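Quick one, T. Sequence first:
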Amino acid sequence: MRVKFHQSLDDLKERLLVMAGMAEQAIQRSIEAYRTRDMSICELVLHSEPAINRLEREIDQMALDLLAMEQPMAIDLRFILSVIRINADLERVGDQAVNIAIRVREMGAFANIDLPVDIPKLAELASAMVRKALQAFIEGDAEMADSVFEMDDQVDKMNDAAYYALSSLIKEKPELTPQSLNALIIARNLERVGDHATNIAEDVIFWVRGADVRHHAASA
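C-alpha cells:
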C-alpha cells in the first residue's frame, strides 16, 4: 500500500515539473518577444495560458486526492502541501509571462528604441531564481533553497534601477512615455517572477526542514 502511495508522490512531483517547464517556457518566450518585437511569439504566450491553468487544477486535484485518501503525516504531508503552494506560484509565473506579452504587444505600436534598462538580463536572473528553486525542490536541498534569497536582492536592485532610469527618461523625453511605461511594468513583472521563486524556495525549506520561513526568509 505504501509503495503505491510513494509512487503517487513521484507522479505528483513529475506533473509539477511539467508545470514548471511550461511556466519557464512562457517567460522565455515573452522575453524573446520583447527582444525581437515579434508579435507571433506574444500570441504563443497568450495561447499557453489555458493549458497552464488546466494543469494547475489537475495537480491540485491530485494533491487533494492524496490528502483525502492517504491522510499522510510529517514529511509526506509537508511535501504535498508544498506542491500545492509551488503549483500556485508556477501558475502565477505563467500569468507574469502573459502580462509581459500584452505589454510587448502594446509596445509594437511604437518605434523600437533603445531604453535604459536591460530587460533580458533581468529576465535571465529572475528565470535563474526559478530554476534554482526548482532544482532545490527536485533534490530536496534546503541549503540550495536558501541561496535563492540572495538572488532576490539582485533582482530587486535591478528593478529599482530600471524604475529610476525610466522615470528620468519620461521626464526628459515625454514623447517616449508609452514605451518607457511598458518597459517599467515588464521590469515589475520580472521582479514578481523573482518573488514567486522566493516563495518556492520557502516551500522547499518548509518541506525539508519543517520550518515556516515565510515573511522572514532573510533571517532564516
